[in-house]
Structures are given as C-alpha cells and as structure tokens.
Amino acid sequence: MHTGEQYHNLILTSRRDRVVRDRFQKTALDLLPEGADVLDFGAGTGIDAKIFAAKGHRTFVYEPSQAMSEYLTRYCSDDIDRKSIVTVTSPLACKVQAVTANFAVLNHFASHTLLFEELSRVVHHGGFVLASMLNPYYLGDARYSWWRANLINLIRHGHYAIESESRIHRFTPRSVARAATPHFQLERLTPRGFGLATQLYMFLLFRRG
C-alpha cells in the first residue's frame, strides 16, 4: 500500500502513466466550457485538480483515502487557500458542469447504477462525466491467469472482479453505459476497434440529459 507521497512520486515518474494522464487532462479541458466548475472524483493527490484550477476551472476534489487526501492538501495548498480548489467530504456537496474520474477510480465500484444516479444530482443538464477505466479487452493482460479465467464472465455478465486487497472490477463499456442510463448517455468511447486490444485504459464520456 502506497502512502500519498509515494503514489504521487510514482505516478509522476511513470512515462506510461504520464502519457495517459496528459491525454485525459487534454480531453477534459477541451470539453469544459470556459470557467466551468468541475468535480475531480477520486482526486488522488490532486495532480489533475491542480491543472484544471490553473486553467481557470474551480475544482472540487473528493478523495476518500486519508493518505491521498492529506498529500493533496499539501500539494494543492496554495490553490486551496485561493479557493480555486475546494475539498469536499461528499460529491453531493457541489453542483458542477463536469465530473472527472481518472486512473480507474470507477473500477473500485462493484456496480455503477447508484453512483450515476447520485452524479446526476451533481452535474448540470448538458454537462458530462469523463472517466478513464481499465480496459477489459487489453491483450497485454492475457499473460495473467486471472484474465483468461474471467473471459467467460466478461462475455456472460459484462464484468468481473479480481481477487485482491482492492478487489478491482473490470467492465465492458456497454455494462457501464447501461448503469448510467437514464441519467447519462455514453457519447464517446476511446479507443475503439483494434485500439481496445492495445491500450490499458479506455476513456468513457457520458453526457447528462
């Protein structure tokens, strides 16, 4: 188990993670209207939040892990003092144009139905939820026995859980989209086609009706 500082340093020094994070941040910023508020759901140590705030978006941060939250408070102290970053103890404590959930935050949920219902009270009509999730079709994981053993569960049920301390779940995009309905509609999936076999993370964009 990493401390907040260990996680922060690890993810900033990982070239693969930096590429994914940069792409996620650019996608979110391209979608956000000028000056729009955003909720960073599962904000970690505040890496994304700091970027959003620097671009003029007041950013609410929700992070249930105490270790992560404590380091976020240190890392983003200046932004918190300026109130360009606002810590919240519940995602329901704000009303925003968008919710971002980076680096597999939604993979820690066994089901997303209640989550999307709650987020529908947070996101303005016409706003969006952008999530990066672990890609269940990524062939780089085929070397692991748990991936091969769960293929039938993925086909039959659209999801499965990996036995571990964190009990990470993998979902097909269709199963997440089904859970989001009727509050959100899946507007974009990246990558598509063959890219789903070659990239560890997939980006899902949901639009609030």
UniProtKB/TrEMBL annotation:
Superkingdom, natural source: Bacteria
Q: What is this protein called?
A: Methyltransferase domain-containing protein
**Which InterPro entries does this entry report, sorted A to Z?**
SAM-dependent_MTases_sf
Q: Which organism is it from?
A: Dyella acidisoli
Pfam families, alphabetically? Methyltransf_23
